[in-house]
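Handout for the seminar on molecular recognition.
Each group receives one record of this type.
Step one: identify the two inputs.
Step two: read the structure output and locate the region that could contact zinc ion.
Step three: write two sentences on what you found, then compare them with the reference statements printed after the record.
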Amino acid sequence: MSVATKQLVIILLGAPGAGKGTHAGPLSEKLKLPHISTGNLFREHISADSPLGKLAKICMNAGNLVPDELVFNMLFDRVAKPDCERGYILDGFPRTVAQAKVLDRAVQPIALYFSVPDEILIERMTNRLTCPKCNKPYSKSDSCCDVCLVPLIQRADDREEVVRRRLEVYHTQTQPVIDYYAKKNLIPILATGTREEIFQTVLKACQDKG
Ligand code: ADP
Ligand code: ZN
C-alpha cells in the first residue's frame, strides 16, 4: 500500500445491506477515485474459478469471512495499481480489527459508518437483486442491469439463513472495527431517508475531510 500523504482513502463501514455498495459507485464517480469492493474482487475470482475463488466461495456461501491473509494479498495487489495513486474508496474492508490495523499502518482513512437496524437489513438483503456482471444492487421490482443489460440474480449469500449468519459475523467481528474507529475519527451517516439525501450527507462528509 502506498504511503503517499496526499492519498484520499475513504472506508465505508456498516453492516451488510447498509448501503455501502449503493453509495460507493456514485461517490467514486463524483470524487474520481476507484471503488474497491473486496466482496466484488472475490466474486470476480469465483467467476474465474481461480484457486482463491474456490476458497472464498466456501466462506462466502456460509456467511463467514474469508481469512485475513487471503484478503490482504488480493487487496494489496489492487491498491498497487496506478489508478489508486490519488486514493481509493474501500467497500467491505476492513472487516476485522486486524485488517483495520494493517490499513492504518499505510494510510489515514476517512471512516464513514452507515447505521441501519438489523430488521431493515434482513428485509433489504433478502429482497434485493444484484447484477452478475458489475455487482450493482437493485430492488426486486427490477429485472435487468441498466449498465450491463443482463438479467439480475439473487446472490447466493442473500438467502435468509445466510443473511442471518452474515449479520451475526458482522456483530461479532466487524462491530469492533466501528468501535476502533469511533476512538479515532468515525463519521456516522444516518442511513435512513432517501438515497439522494444519504448520498449528499456522504459527499459533504468526504469533501469536508478530504
Ligand atoms: P456485504 O457487505 O453485503 O456483506 P460484500 O460483497 O462486501 O457484501 O461481502 C460478501 C462476502 O465476501 C462476505 O460475507 C465475506 O465472506 C467476504 N468478504 C468481503 N470482504 C471481506 C473482508 N474484508 N474480509 C473477509 N471477508 C470478506
Ligand atoms: Zn451490471
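Reference statements: The longest strand covers residues 8-14. The beta strands are 8-14, 35-37, 87-91, 110-115, 128-130, 137-139, 186-190.
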